[in-house]
Structures
1.
Amino acid sequence: MFCWNCGKENPNESNYCINCGSDLHSNIERKDEESSRNTTYEVLILVGWFLSANQIIFFLTQPESVRGLSIIVELGTFIMSIVLINTKNKTSKTNGWIILCIWIFIELIGLMAGFMIGFMDALMQ
Ligand SMILES: [Zn+2]
């Protein structure tokens, strides 16, 4: 196998690189961790876009006065997904979940505000 650190070829059974001394197996774990982190992020982004799509459908069925809110909420969704994609390789899973929680929070606030305005409109008529 090739050393992840210096690129030197090592016998497959060796634990440490003969050239630089790096732990050859620690990198295998690291790669697994990285790929599971990437999967988590992809799932988070999909969940976010799913919520976002639901919201678009919800807002389209609402009175015109509420629809303006959808722009704000969608903007929040868009920014969150950009943040999530940009931090994909840098942050931990925990940070990803925090971002998703903020995202869902924005979506919920938007939904509640939409319902409130819709309710007010119904009362006025
Ligand atoms: Zn090496």
Note: The longest helix spans residues 26-60.
2.
Amino acid sequence: MNPSHTLIEKLSKFTEKQRKIIYENTFSIQLTKGCSIACFDCGAGAKPKLSDYITPDELTEILTEGKFPHLNGLYHASDPLDYDFEGTDYLEIHKIASKILQSKPYIATAVPKGKEEFVLKYLLHGNYEKINGWVQGPFINRVSVMKTNYNRIQKTFEQMEGYKEEDQIQTKNWKKNDEIIITNEKSLKAETIYSFNEGTDENLFIVPVWSHYVASIGKPVDFKDVMEYYKYRQKNSGHYLSNTPTEIADHYSDSKPGQIHNKKLGEKFKDDLSDEGIGCAHGVILTPKGAYNIQTQRPTPDNPLGWKPEEITPNNFKVTPYKFYQKIHGEKLEGFLKKGNHRLTGESFIKDVLTKIRLKTFDDILYS
Ligand code: SF4
């Protein structure tokens, strides 16, 4: 696939000041156009095939030119791990970006085909990322497991050294005083931390996962058990970055028939939409095709994802100031919008003032 270079060409048409404002409000640089996973109920509206990308040199140029105080990740309606162009895969481009930004881009992936082992390696062996000696959280922040990718992840898991059935420790008499998370619903709950000081009747299958052991009674440990382990860790991690494990978004267990995800979004569900989309910010995204305003709204039949990208152009220069609403800490979209965060794009403004003052003015004045 040849890159179109459209983003870099379009950015060059803006003035330096305009680019500065765009960058300061950018929360996502979507490196690829389209997503190889092709979920029919994609809540981000991704097209089901890769068709364009931002080159490593272009990304370096953009990141070096601007300041990106709100940049969260290198994907949006896409999967970061799809990036593999010009001899640079996602890991490489992540390193380039982290070095320039001095912080870690967030990674959420639904495990594109061929990346199963890459993701499993991180899930099984531990994955904190440090930049300049500071823990930045897990390298892969979130993995979406769905009915459509579970089987290939499980198949790879079964073939991995140390995790194949014949490699799993089997015992009826586990004496070691390590923490073991048992995930076999037949016996103990996933929440149970169990120290085996006595023998059991059935064979225990045990594998090391990160700094613990995951065990299953009566059957080899499978990827579902690993997921339970991660969900357990997530619930009990506290608030320390150094303790935060990769989050497993388990759509494998919770999606309804006829859905891959747990939310109903997009054209397909336009008459029965979920209350919230998956977006959690107002601001700007850069994609291989240009710079776009994004405003999070309640999904409606006209706007069934809850946001629509609107292109920013030099002649009609309107930029949505960055705003984030914290789903994680329970702020609902409704509360976020009620606070006056609805419809932020307004008049063109290019004032050479501090970002904060500018954004405050913008928030106060430019509702429509
Ligand atoms: S939901 Fe995520 S993984 Fe699925 S098509 Fe959309 S961007 Fe890709």
Note: The two ends are 41 Å apart (CA to CA).
